[in-house]
Specification:
single chain, 323 residues, alpha/beta, Rossmann fold, DNA polymerase, domain 1, 8-stranded mixed sheet, 13 helices, 15% strand, globular
């Protein structure tokens, strides 16, 4: 998710509980008809609460690997009782759930407002804090540890491929040179390092802070986010009932590309331009709800700056997969 500094500050001032594309999500999932739904990325619980409020016949299973999300889920449990269940887990591990078949599944990828606004988590350079960035801060290595120890190839993958930073060579070189000097330990010193490494273009004002892309790339790398998305989508579709709906909200091109290609594959369409398989080689398991992604309108963007980069895609399951 790439936000300008103005967008980020606006998001901070907005309600932390505002879920993105809420109306469109409800139109896709149609929870008012009742059933069992999965919120694969609980976050602040906004989408979950809306589904539970849509009908007394709705039950929601929510998961999130963030330890602090588990605390927020306790409040919903008190209100909705047995209609709400929460599991502390990565959405890549949906296959471990006791519940087997869902009428609808929602993924809202990227960072929650809570994670962005809690400086000590190290996701944002708006705060001077330890450079952590772990979605689950109970396990794994911190961003600082990654920057200090990763191979040059892994740094290139994070900055160039995941961050899509054009000046990746200069940024990677600056990171390697900064090792052991304390610069890579905190958010603001790391952001300043990246900013100093990126050439400024005369007469051109960047919409986002120069360190934004690198922060994104490092975060994706240490949390292995893209592989988790692939696994979550795959296993989630297995758990979806026939005629059930899966909706996925993405915040940057890498996430959206994975979702788009997966849904096109399930619909029997070419996944990308180089996919030249014959039609009889394709399996049609679902139908994309719309060809183009749903985006927030201007009214929603004004109310919630985080929605500016949101893209939602949906698919309806038509038949069970053949093993």
């Amino acid at each position: 998710m790439l936000l300008s500094m103005d967008d980020t500050l606006s998001a901070q001032g907005a309600s932390q509980h505002v879920p993105v594309l809420l109306e469109a999500t409800m139109e896709y999932l149609k929870p008012e008809a009742g059933g069992l739904f999965l919120d694969g990325t609980f976050g602040g619980g906004g989408h979950t609460r809306a589904m539970l409020d849509s009908s007394p016949e709705v039950c929601v299973v929510a998961i999130d690997q963030d330890p602090e999300a588990e605390e927020r889920a306790l409040a919903l449990k008190k209100v909705y009782g047995d209609r709400f269940r929460f599991y502390s887990m990565n959405f890549a591990d949906i296959g471990q759930l006791e519940e087997r078949r869902f009428d609808g599944i929602l993924f809202d990828f990227g960072l929650s407002s809570f994670q962005l606004d809690e400086g000590e988590r190290g996701f944002s350079f708006r705060f001077d804090a330890p450079l952590d960035m772990r979605m689950n801060n109970r396990e794994g290595i911190t961003a600082s540890e990654f920057l200090e120890t990763a191979s040059e190839a892994d740094l290139i993958r994070a900055v160039r491929d995941y961050g899509e930073e054009r000046s990746w060579r200069k940024v990677v070189a600056a990171i390697l040179d900064a090792r052991g000097k304390g610069i890579l330990e905190r958010t603001q010193s790391f952001a300043e390092l990246v900013e100093s490494a990126i050439p400024r273009r005369a007469g051109f004002k960047e919409r986002i802070h120069p360190a934004t892309r690198t922060f994104q790339g490092v975060r994706i790398a240490i949390n292995d986010e893209l592989k988790s998305i692939e696994a979550g989508l795959e296993e989630g579709f297995h758990r979806l009932k026939v005629n059930g709906i899966m909706a996925a909200i993405s915040f940057h091109s890498l996430e959206d590309r994975i979702v788009k290609r997966f849904f096109r594959k399930l619909s029997g369409r070419p996944e990308h331009r180089k996919d030249d398989r014959l039609q009889e080689e394709r399996q049609v398991l679902g139908s994309m709800i719309a060809t183009k992604a749903v985006k927030a309108d201007e009214e929603e963007i004004r109310a919630n700056a985080r929605s500016r980069s949101a893209r939602m895609r949906g698919i309806k399951k038509l038949v069970e997969e053949v093993a």
